[in-house]
Amino acid sequence: MELEPSSLCFLIFTLTTAAVFFLLCHLTATRRHRNPWCTCEVCEMYLTAGWSNHHANICDWYSDLLRRSPTKTVHIHVLGNTITANPDNVEYMLKTRFENFPKGKPFSSILSDFLGHGIFNVDGDLWRFQRKMASLELDGFSIRSFAFETVSFEIEDRLLPLLLSASETETRVLDLQDVFKRFSFDCICKFSFGLDPMCLQLSLPLSEFALSFDLASQLSAERAMEVSPSVWKIKRLLNLGSEKKLRDAIAMIDVLAQEVINQKRRIGYSSVHKDLLSRFMRTVKDDKYLRDIIVSFLLAGRDSVASALTSFFWLIAKHPQVASEICEEANRVIGNRQVKSFEQLRELHYLNAAVYESMRLYPPVQFDSKFCQKDDIFPDGTLIKSGTRVTYHPYAMGRMEEIWGPDCLEFRPGRWLKEGKFCPENPFKYPIFQAGLRVCLGKEMALMEVKTVALSLLRRFRVELAGNVAGLRFSPGLTATISGGLPTKIREISMGAPC
Ligand code: HEM
């Protein structure tokens, strides 16, 4: 259809007027919780990105602000966002006053195009239903052995051969972040849907599904960084720029999620099928809802595990003595055999400590936000007005002397051990998997996956950094992703030899 120039002008005028009207209405409505015109030093730093002159990442800037705050809590006026690194406040919002700090509408509207009504994006009954179904599945003994078998197969048959081939050429540089994303995508698809996308074959391009997934996650996170939601809402209305890209990425995710559902219907989802989606499909008949469940579980299980593994290997490459201690412990406890079960992994206390320590410094989910429903007061005395976005910040918490002592910036797995045994910390001081009523449901599975990969690789290979040596820079996204990946060179070592 061709438009007359006069009709086109009229259309542009109408859309622009609507956009301005919408923007003004929105700004007025949100001014109660935020002050978009604030000119204080911190807000100016945020708006001009002045923080980037002193810090590599925005999370480093927030850590610095929080460290200097006497209460370990700060408020960014232009965002209407109270950010805390105070464990008492974290416990208060995630447990004591859980009902008053839901995900809330503003958060779910930011993510609703991507996540729909999936578990990450809902409160109330929708959340309770998915939580109950998923916990029934994830807590069982048989699912643990299924998960262990899935991960072991992926390591033995795909990951180790791939690294072996990379180690054969001295000069070959391998992006471990890309490898771990492919690895965890295969694992979570097999585990959650009983389907194998076979991404861990570098000869294949990363599937369009996985690429669209990365893009949708990044663009959705960028929405949250806008000073006013009206900005992305108008762009979405006009289907412009990043919002157009997001719409296209989501369209691709929708097609492929539907394909997953169709395939499951063909294969069957009766009680003999152990995967998570089969369990949901026995109860849920609505394809849109199933799509949302699929997307949330992919987000939960893929990026977080890949992120944990990537920063673990970055730290290990810089601390080879930790790799040696992990291998020594494994040789002492299980000999030079492979780990045989979920339970056997628990005997490896130093390995567990090294994984916990790595996520303390580099949490896969660097921060997590809720919205305050009714006016409240944090234990540190901070007044929280209804409608305020409240964020707890695990990345900053891992860098607090008050929590971890003067050596908080050092990678020191020993801090988790007492007489050689792993001692967990209070989860509100270490909310890497969140804590309280919405604690991560895949925690045990994630730890098993990270530890099994870490041990299998460290016993066979030495990983050397071929870039990103000085420090890590993160890309915006819902989960921490290293900008530029993790370029490495892989060297084979013989099993049982000191690594
Ligand atoms: C190292 C890996 C992982 C980390 C650090 C992690 C961390 C988290 C965090 C911080 C949350 C809270 C997010 C929010 O409410 O916004 C969460 C929730 C969740 N995680 Fe994980 N996760 C990991 C792996 C996994 C895996 C492998 C699965 C599934 C197999 C999983 C399943 C879930 C689910 C279902 C929720 C939602 C819980 C709820 O809202 O009630 N996670 N996780």
TrEMBL record:
Cofactors named for this entry: heme
Entry keywords, A to Z: Heme, Iron, Metal-binding, Monooxygenase, Oxidoreductase
Binding site for heme: C440
GO MF annotations in UniProt: heme binding; iron ion binding; monooxygenase activity; oxidoreductase activity, acting on paired donors, with incorporation or reduction of molecular oxygen
The organism's place on the tree of life at top rank: Eukaryota
Signal peptide: none
Similarity-based family: Belongs to the cytochrome P450 family.
UniProt protein name: Cytochrome P450
Annotated organism of origin: Trapa incisa
